[in-house]
Amino acid sequence: MRQYLDIISQFFTDQKTIEILQALLIFLAGLLVAKVVTGSVVKMLEKRFTTHETQLFRRGIFYGILSLFAISALNQMGFNLSVVLGAAGIFSVAIGFASQTSASNLISGLFLLGERPFSVGDIIRVGTTTGEVLSIDLLSVKLRTFDNLYVRIPNESLIKSEMTTLTKFPIRRFDMQVGVAYKEDLSKVRDVLFDVAKSNHLCLEEPKPLFIFQGFGNSSLDIQFSVWAKRENYLDLRNSIYLGVKEAFDAADIEIPFPHMTLYTGSVTDPFPVRFTEKETADASPATGP
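RE: above sequence
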């Protein structure tokens, strides 16, 4: 027992061990200070900056303070920081040449931070991908799609391609394409569509609904009917407006035609129509002959 106590006493009185313990205490103190300072600063910044900017500030402050304490801990352990920093500089240059794509994403992330086209929680569409923004980092943006998939998009792709923020403004417009038969009265159709919008509580009265006659289609008179809704009600309006128009057209006996084609055969001056119909026919045995 005496021998073990001497070993433990010698361990804690060794100069190198004391330096390691002091360095460990410095690092743990830095970790605690970084958390406290970061939490205090973030509370002051939340009212002035967006969520993703606050996240970047939190990470920068936390790792900045922690790095200072880590350097102090290394210095306490007797490391020559000039040699470490020199090696880090050479390593950084090598990494820079090997990771030009990362550098491009980093610069693009700074542009996104300054431009602020969207924030955490917004819905954006990039190419064929649409989803909610989970985080905006210096190298990439993380999305969660509506079918609950996790998508990472490099910042460089966001800068170079067209990107649409679907939740930037408080209201959105839905453009419904509808066709009616050529025999229909467009004034009546217009009145019916406006009545549908008026009876739908999700449609906004201002801006007013918009009726646009787009032209003569192959099988119908083509119309665009546009209505406005609050951003959070957009999907519900998109579903309900179609149901309302179908029910209103049926009640007003307004025909929504399906595509059809009429074929003529015969001479140019005297064509006669040919109509294809489906009917039951009896099974006929194949003709036989010489």
